[in-house]
Amino acid sequence: MLLNFERLGAWKWILLVITGLTAAFLILPIVFIAALSFGSSQWLIFPPPSWTLQWYKAFLADPRWLEAAWTSFRIAAVVTVLSVLIGLVASFGLVRGRFIGKEALRALFLTPMILPVVVLAVALYAFFLRIGLNGTTTGFVIAHLVVALPFSILSMTNALEGFDKSIEDAAVLCGAHPLEAKIRVTLPAISHGLFSAAVFSFLTSWDEVVLAIFMASPTLQTLPVKIWTTLRQDLTPVIAAASTLLVIVTIALMLLAALVRKGLKS
Amino acid sequence: MATLTDPGGIAGTVKPRIVRQYNFAQTVPALALILLFFVLPVLALLLRSVLEPQPGFGNYAALLGSTTYLKIFLNTFVVSALVTAVSLAIGFPVAWALAIMPSRLSSVVFAILLLSMWTNLLTRTYAWMVLLQRTGVINKTLMGLGLIDQPLPLVNNLVGVTIGMTYIMLPFIILPLYGVIRRIDPAILQAAALCGATRFQALTRILIPLAAPGMVSGALMVFVMSLGYFVTPALLGGTANMMLAELIAQFVQSLVNWGMGGAAALILLVVTLTLYAVQLRLFGPARMGGH
Amino acid sequence: MKNITIIAALAATLGLSTAASAAELVFTSWGGTTQDVQKAAWADKFTEKTGTAVVQDGPTDYGKIKAMVEAAGVTWDVVDVEGDYAVQAGKAGLLEKLDFSVIDKTKLDPRFVTDYSVGSFYYSFVIGCNKDAVSACPKTWADLFDTAKFPGKRTFYKWSAPGVIEAALLADGVAADKLYPLDLDRAFKKLDTIKADIVWWSGGAQSQQLLASAEAPFGSFWNGRLTALAATGVTVETSWDQNITAADALVVPKGAKNKDEAMKFIALATSAEAQAEMAKGTGYAPINVGSPALMDADVAKTLPDQQTASQVNADMGYWAENRDAIGERWYAWQAK
User: Fold this and answer.
1) Are B27 and A97 in contact (CB < 8 Å)?
2) Contact flag B122-A177 (C-beta cutoff 8 Å)
3) What is the predicted ipTM?
4) How far is the CA of A242 from the CAs of A48, A55, A212, A236, C59, in angstroms?
5) B2 lies in a domain?
6) CA-to-CA separations, A144 to A210, A211, B142, in angstroms, rounded
7) Which of B85, C155, C265, C280 has the fewest CB atoms within 10 Å, i.e. is most exposed?
C-alpha cells in the first residue's frame, strides 16, 4: 500500500509537502534569474530600481551568444547519441557478461567522473595537439564523451540490473531474434535508464566548462565558456536574459511535446 | 511472427535461439575510447607527479606531510558525504512521491526538475550566491517577516556549499531512484499490508531495501561528482572549505606545477577507488536479480 | 567497434588544428569587455594598418600555454597574461624574447618592461567604499584592517597575486620601501586579525557586485572597476593612499607561428594612441608615457599615473622569483 497514492493516508501529505518544498527550492533560482533579467540595474540587486528589456536586446544583438549556444547544443547532441549507444552496449556486457575483471572494468569506466576534470583537460589537450585534434569538433566531442560515458553506463547498468531477463529470454524462446527481443522487450523496459543516460550525458556536455576552455578555438566557443569569462569580467544581466530565454524555449518545447502526446493519444 | 501472447502455438515449431552473446566484446567500444582518450593521456600527465621537479616521491611527501593539504582532502570527502546524505534524504521521498503521484502533478514536478538542470550551472550558482547573501533576498525576506533580526550567514561557508551542491545533485538522485521505485511490484507491498505490516515496517523492511540499488547508484554518482567539483564550492564556500578540485586547478592552471597537481589527483583517485571497492563488498550482493 | 572506426576516419579528415595561416595572428586575452576594447583599440587598428587579420581567442590559460609550448603546437601568437607570470614564464623558457628593434621601448613605462614582456595595461589596488552603506569609509590600509573602527565585512582579491600581502604589510606599519623581500609570516599574522571578516572576490565583476550590493561595503579593488561602478550610479569613495600598482603583460609564447607579426602587433598595442584608446575604454592605465597627453583631462584624472603621491609598486621581479612559494603559502593560509 506504500505504492498506492490514495491509500497512504497521512503519509501522503508528508510526501506532498516534501515534494512541494523541493519543487519550490528547485525553481527558486530560475524565477530569481528571470526577475533579474528584467531589472534595470546592472548589479544583481533585488528588487531592481526599474524594469527593462535592454538585456534581452543586448543578448539577441550579439551574434556570439547565439553562436555559442548553437555550438554547445550541437556538440551536446552528438555526445548524447554516442554516449547512449556506446554506454548501452557496454552496459549489456557489464551486467550480463561473465569474465574476469568485470568489476575492475566497471570501476575503470567510473574513473573519468572521479578524476578532477582539469587534469583530463590538460592531458587531452596535450595529446590532441600531437595528433592534430585540438580546436576541432571531433576532439571536443571525444573529450565530452569521455566524461559523459560514466553517467550513461551507471544509469543503464542500474536499469538493466533491475530488469528481469527471463522476459527477454521468453521472447527469444518464442522465436524472436535475440536482437529483436532486446529492442522490443528490454529497451522499453529500461527506458527510464535510457532517458536518464541521455539527460545526464546531454547536460554533462551542455554545462561543461573546463574541458571546453581547453578544447576551444576562436571558432569553437561554447556557451558555458562564454558565460564563465563574462561572469568573471563583467556582471551583466545579459546572462540572466540568456538563461531565461533558454528556459522559455524549453517550456515551450515541453508544452508542445505534451500537446503532441495528447493529440496522439486521442 | 512469434509473439509473447502465443507461446504455445509457435514455440513448438521454431528452434530456440538463446545465443550466449553477453561477454567482453560488448564493452570493447567503451573500453577503447576510455583507454585511448582517458587512461593514456592522463597516465602520461600523472607520470609527471613522480618526475617533476625531480624524480621521486617528493610531491607526494609534500602533500601527505602538510596539514593544510590533508585538511583540504578531508574537507572534500566530508562535504561530498554531507551533500550525498542530504540529497538522498530529500531525493528519496521525492522520487517515491513522483513514482506514485497522479501523472498531472508528477509531470509538473518533472518539468521543474529538468528545467533546473537545464539552466547553466554557473548561472544557477551565481543566482544562489546573490540569493543567499547577507543583503540577499532570503535574508531580507526573513528579516522583513520578523523571523530574524541579524542576517544569517548563508553563503561563503559550508551552508552555502551544501545548499548549492544539493541543488545541483538532487536530480541525479531523483531520476534513477524514480525509475527503480516505478519498477517495484506494488503487489509485494500489498502482500505486506495483508500480512499485517505497518506502513513504517513496510517502508523500512521492504520499500527501502528494494529501492536500495537505485539509492546506491545515485549516491555513488553524487558522491563521486562532488569529489571532483570546484565551481560551486569556489563561488559559494569560504576559503576554509576549499575543495580538492580547486586546489588541483590552482596547481595545474595558475601555479602550473603539474607534478603536484598530478600527485594530488592521483591520491584522490586511489582513495576514491578504494572506497568504491569497499562499497562493492558491502552492497554488491544487494543488487536486484537479473542475471 | 564501428563507432571508433568512424570517429577515427572523421578525425583523419577533419582533424587539422586551426593553425593561423600566413596572414593571420591569434591574440588571446581574458575575455569580457576588456578584450572587446583590446580588439577595437589594437587588433582592428592592426588589421587596418597591415592587412593582417587578427583572430581573438581566450580565455588565457597558463596550463594551455605550457602544454602548447611543450608540444611545439603553439596556436597563440600574442597573449595577455599577469605581470608576474610573464616574468616567471620568461625565466622558464616558455616565451620568445621580444624584438625591441620593432617595439619602441623608450616610451614605455620601465616598471613594466622585461626581456620577454611589456605591459599590456596597468592598474592599482585602491581602497573602495560604498558611501551609502556605511557611516565612515576607511582611508588607509591600516583603516581597512581595523575592524574596531570600521566594523563589517571587507573584500580582497582571492588569488595569489601582488596586492593583498603588500597591503597587509603596509597596514602593519612596514615602510613602503622596505616591503621586499616580503615578510610572509608578518603579513599572514596581520591578515589573521581580520580573516573572519573577509569576503573574497575572484573576478572584477564580482568585486563590483559585492560593493554595489553592500555585501562588503569596503575593500581592496582594481581602480578601473571602481570608476566603472561609479559611472553606473553607485556612490563610491576611492582612497588612493598607498595604492599598489600591478600590471598585465603582453607575451609571445615560444614557438609562436607568427613571431614577426606578433612583434609588430605588440609595437602597435603599446603605442601612445593605442594605449590611450585602451585606457579610455577600460579605466585601466596606459603603459606608454606619451598616452596621458592624448587623453581627456577628466579621464586622465582617474588613472593611477596621476596618483603617484604615495604609490607603491608591486615588485614583479620578486613575485616572479617566488611565485610558487608564495602561492603555496597563500592557499595554505586561506584553507586554514
Assistant:
1) yes
2) no
3) 0.84
4) 18, 9, 19, 11, 20
5) no
6) 10, 7, 42
7) B85
Domains delineated in chain A: 63-265 (1.10.3720.10)
B44 touches chain C (CB under 8 A): no
Nearest to A19 among B26, B29, B97 (CB): B97
DSSP B285: G
What's at B32, amino acid-wise?
A: A
Could you list the pLDDT tens digit for every one of the 291 residues in chain B?
555 565 555 555 555 555 555 577 888 888 999 999 999 999 988 888 888 788 888 888 888 888 888 888 999 999 999 999 999 999 999 999 998 888 888 889 998 998 888 888 888 888 898 888 888 888 888 888 888 888 888 888 889 999 999 999 999 999 889 988 888 888 888 888 888 878 788 888 888 888 888 888 889 889 988 988 888 888 888 888 888 888 888 888 888 888 888 899 999 888 888 888 887 787 664 443 332
Of C199, C328, C331, the CB nearest to B156: C199
Distance from CA of C308 to the nearest CA of B (A): 30
Beta bridge partners of C156: C200
Helix (H) or strand (E) holding A137: helix A137-161
C123-245+309-316 shares the fold of C21-122+248-306? yes
Domain CATH number, residue B193: 1.10.3720.10
Distances in whole angstroms, Cα of residue A236 to Cα of each of A114, B253, C32, C69, C215:
33, 26, 10, 35, 18
Residues B169 and B87: beta-carbon distance below 8 Å: yes
pLDDT at B291: 29
Q: C 199-218 residues with CB below 8 A of B? A: 199-200, 202, 209, 213-215
> Cell for A149?
560515458
State in words which class domain C21-122+248-306 has: alpha beta
The SS3 call for residue C155 is strand
**Nearest partner of B271 among B102, B122, B70, judged by Cα:** B70
Q: Report residue C160 as a C-alpha cell.
A: 595569489
Are the Cβ atoms of B167 and A192 closer than 8 angstroms? no
Q: Do A233 and C206 touch (CB under 8 A)?
A: no
User: Which structural domain, as residue segments, surrounds residue B118?
Assistant: 46-286
Q: Would you call B157 an interface residue with chain C, using a CB distance cutoff of 8 Å? A: no
Partners of chain C (3+ Cβ pairs below 8 A): A, B
Instruction: Choose the closest CB to A138 out of C14, C30, C204.
Output: C14
Chain C contact set for A130 (CB, 8 A): 71, 73
A153 close to A87: Cβ distance less than 8 angstroms: yes
- Residue of C10, C210, C282 to mutate for A, most A C-beta atoms under 10 A: C10
Cell of C202: 575572484
What is the Cα–Cα distance from B207 to B199, expressed in whole angstroms?
10
- DSSP-derived letter for residue C23 is T
Q: What is the pLDDT of residues C35-70, one digit of tens each?
A: 889 999 999 999 999 999 999 998 899 999 999 999
Judge whether A196 and A82 are in contact, CB under 8 Å: no
Interface residues of A toward C, Cβ cutoff 8 Å, are 41-45, 82, 85-86, 118, 121-122, 125-126, 129-139, 142, 213-214, 216-219, 225-226, 228-235
Give me the phi and psi of C108, to 5 degrees please: -95, 145
Residue C248, helix vs strand vs coil:
strand
* Residue extents of the structural domains in chain C: 21-122+248-306, 123-245+309-316
Residues of A in contact with B272 (CB under 8 A): 114
Provide the CATH topology of domain C123-245+309-316.
D-Maltodextrin-Binding Protein; domain 2 (3.40.190)
Which is nearest to B260 in space by CA: B35, B89, B121, B59? Answer: B59
Question: Which residues in chain B have Cβ-Cβ distances shorter than 8 Å to C11?
Answer: none
The number of C-beta contacts closer than 8 angstroms across A and C is 118
